[in-house]
Records
---
Amino acid sequence: MKRNIFLFATLLMVACSLIFTSCNDDPDMDAVPPSFSEVIVSPTSVPAGGSATATLKIKSMGNKWYKLKCTWTLMQHASEDPYIAKGESYTLEMKEPNFTIAVPDEAPAGTYTLRITKLTVEAASLFANGSPYGSSSIENNSATMTITEAEHPEDESEE
C-alpha cells in the first residue's frame, strides 16, 4: 500500500511540474504594427494608363514587422456615375513605405481621391492577438490626384 501511495505521489509531482513549467517553445508575441500620419501622391497628375507613387509618412515605426499590404481605391466624384478603381500593392520598404498606384486605361479624365482603405502588416514574430498579421493605422488616408486623358502617340502617317 505504501508503495502505491509513493508511486501515486511521484506521478503527481511529475505531472504538476510539467503543467507549471513554462515552455521555451512559445512564439514571441512582440510585434507592433506601425502607424502612419498621411499618404502623399507623386506625381499628382497622371495620364490614364499611367501610374503614380503613394508614399506613407510614418508616425510610429512599430516593431518587428517587415511587409506591408495596402488596399486602395481611386474615385472620381465629379460625374453623375462616379468612376471607381481598386487595387492592392505590397512593399518591403519599412522606412518610408511606398506603393505603385496603376491608373486603369479606361479611367476618364478628372479629379480623383486616392483612399487607402486597408493596411495589413506581416511580422516575423506574432502580434498581441497571436497572429503574424496585424492591422496598421493611418490618420489621413486620402490624397487628391488628377487623371488626364491617355497619351496617344502622334500618327506619323499623316503628311
Note: Residues 83 and 95 are 33 Å apart (CA to CA).
---
Amino acid sequence: MTEKFLKSMLLAALTLVVCACSDEDSVKKLITFHTGSERDNAMASNRTLEVMPISTVSVMTDTNHFMYNGDLQKVHVAEVTLPDGKPLRGFYFICNSRGAKRLFQATASNMGGYVVVKYDGNVIGLRRIDMAMNDGKIFVTPEIPLKADLQALVDEMNKAIDTINEIKEEANAW
C-alpha cells in the first residue's frame, strides 16, 4: 500500500511540475467525461444543470467525472451517417483498458442518460446512452459551433492525452 501511495504522490508531483513548466495551455487542460440525465434531482448536491451550447438540451450533470485524459489513448474526428442520410462529424474517443472499464460501468448503469464531455471545464460534446459501451470507443456529438475547427481541437486534446500518459509512464517506472 505504501508503494502505491508513493507512486500516486509522485504522479501528482510530476503533473504539477509539467503543467507549471509548460508553455502549452493544452497540457494543463483536462478532458473529462460526466454522466447526466434529464431528470432534476434537487437532493443531489453533486449535480449541476448544464445547458448544451448548441442543442440547448438541459442535462443534470454529475460534477464528478468518471473518466479523464489518463483513461484515453486517442481522439479522432469521425463522421457518421444519420438515418436521414445526412453526415454528422464528431469526436471519436478511444479508451485505454482502464478507460474501457470505466466507460462500460458508467454507460451500463446510466442507460437512457447522457455522457457529457468537457474540455478545460467547458462542454464540448454530448452522447445519449443507448447501450452499454463495452469496446472502449465512443462517438460524441460536438456541442461547439459548427464553424469551429474540430481537427485543431482534436490535435490539442491528443497533446493533452499524450502528456498525461507520459507522466503516468514515468511514475510507473519509479
Note: The domain at 2-173 is CATH 3.30.1360 (Gyrase A; domain 2).
---
Amino acid sequence: MTQAYEERLAGEPCLRPAPAAPHELLCNRLHAWVRAALPPNSALCLLPRRTPVTLGGGDCVCPDLALSRAEDGRLYLAVEVLQPGDHHWDTVVKKELYLTERLPRLWIVDSRYHNVEIYGTGEFGFRLEHILASQDRLTDPALPGFGRTMDALFARPCP
C-alpha cells in the first residue's frame, strides 16, 4: 500500500496524498520498462519510486520515476504521473522547479487523456518535444532500445 509523502515546493512543505492504484500501475510499468532498458554500466541510475531529491534552491521533490547521473547524482530525467485533483503541483510548480534546475528531460504522464508530454531543455528553457498518444512510442536517447507505445502504457490490467 502506498502512503502520503511530503515534498518542499517553492519553499513550502506540501503533503501529497497517497497515490491511487491506477497511478501506481503506471509507475510500476514505467519502472520495469526503464530498468530493463538501462544498459549495463550505464551512466544513469534508476532511483526508487518517489525518492526525495533536493534541488539547488533547497526544494525537495519526489518524482514518480527519476534517473540520476551516476557521476554526480544530478537528475537527468524526472517523470511525473498525474493524479486527479493533484495536477497543479506536477504541471506548474514542479515543472518550474525542474526548469530552474535545468533538468535535461521531463515526462508528464496524464492518464485522463492517455498521453505523455515529453520536454527537453533548450536554450530558452523547457521545450515541448512531443505529445505522445495511442501508437506513438515513448523513447529516450539515454535508453537505447527502449520504446513502448502509449496503448501499452495505459492498457488495463488483466482481471
Note: The chain has one domain: 24-153.
